Structures are given as structure tokens and as C-alpha cells.
Amino acid sequence: MFRGLWNIPLVRKGLVLAVLLCGALSAAPSNAVTRAVLGDVTGDSRVAVDDAVRVLRVAVGLALPTRNDLRLGDVAPRKGVGNRIIGDGALTVADVLAILRRAVGLISDEDFGANLTLVFVEPDTVVLGPGDRQRFDVMVVGPMVTGVSWRVVGSAGGIISTDGVYTAPQKIIGVQKVIVEAQVDASIGTAEVVLDEEGAPPPPPPLG
Ligand SMILES: [Ca+2]
Q: C-alpha distances in angstroms, 160 versus 42, 165, 193?
């Protein structure tokens, strides 16, 4: 096949390559699924002492937590508080110690929570007007057996495609809310969509 490709004129070869490339691109899902590791706030796919140091800096007020710090570094308490699967929404010395124990191999997958699947939807909140579209991405922490399935919860409706693109209803009365759910295995992540008949607010003016 490649020998045949070599023999056709250059322009046509370019066309063939372009068609092959387009096929490959359109076959890829349009929403991004990012994988992450519980406790790995530095993003190098392992839990090490530098992760504990980063969380310690946040815990003692030397650094402001990023969204990822709060998602991946909040590992204590192991049984979550409120509706959390794990953690309490705060980065404290308890999180630092758990990450440190994990880094040096003193804590099992089970006890650390590494066998839990956590799902986060990005953006986690958005304002849309009639007929507006929004693409949602997901971050999956921990094991992932199935793909992502999407659902819209709430009487105001709208539809979401299998690849996470939400389309607001054409008719919105006042301001309503729906929840977009992304399910991976038995775990669900959510985003809040505020539907406003006036449409989304204009972007803030540039600073300065
Ligand atoms: Ca915590």
C-alpha cells in the first residue's frame, strides 16, 4: 500500500495524506478526558514527597490552593465529610501526613483511597442563553473501566451529546438551573448550568 502511495504524483499524495489525517481527527472524541492520580498535586503521575511539600505550603498558608490542589490533595479524612467520597474540602496537616505516608509506601491503595474513582467536570459552572452550546471536559482520578456517559438533570432540560456538548433549550423562562452529570463506572461528577433568557453575561472588560 505504501509503495503504491509513493508512486502517485506529489499533489495527489498530499491529498491522500490530508484525507487520512481528517479521518483520524474526526474519529477522536471531541471532549477531553484527563486522567489524574489521587495525591499527585504536582502532576507527574506519582505520589512523592514534593506533593506533600506542596500541600504543606497550602496548609500553613504559604501558597494559595489551585483547583487541582483541592481535588487531588484533599485525601483526609479517608471517608469523606458530607457528600464527599474522600476529604473534607480543606488542605490540612492530615492531608500532608497521608500523602507523605503514601509517598514512602506506608499506606495501602485501599487505605489511601487510590482505588476510588473521582470524576470532576470542567467547567464546573457556566451561564448560557437560549440555544447556546457548551463543551464539558472531565478529569477522572483513580480507576476507569467504562467510558464517560453524560446526562442532564433538571426540568429546564437541554440536551447533551455522547461526547459532552450541552445545548441549552431554545426557550428559557427567566433564570433556571440544570445539572450536567458525567458518570464513570459508579462515580458521578457534576457541573451547574445556569440558563438565563437574557443570555450569558458579557465578558468582563480588560484590566487596565
Ligand atoms: Ca482534607
A: 32, 5, 12
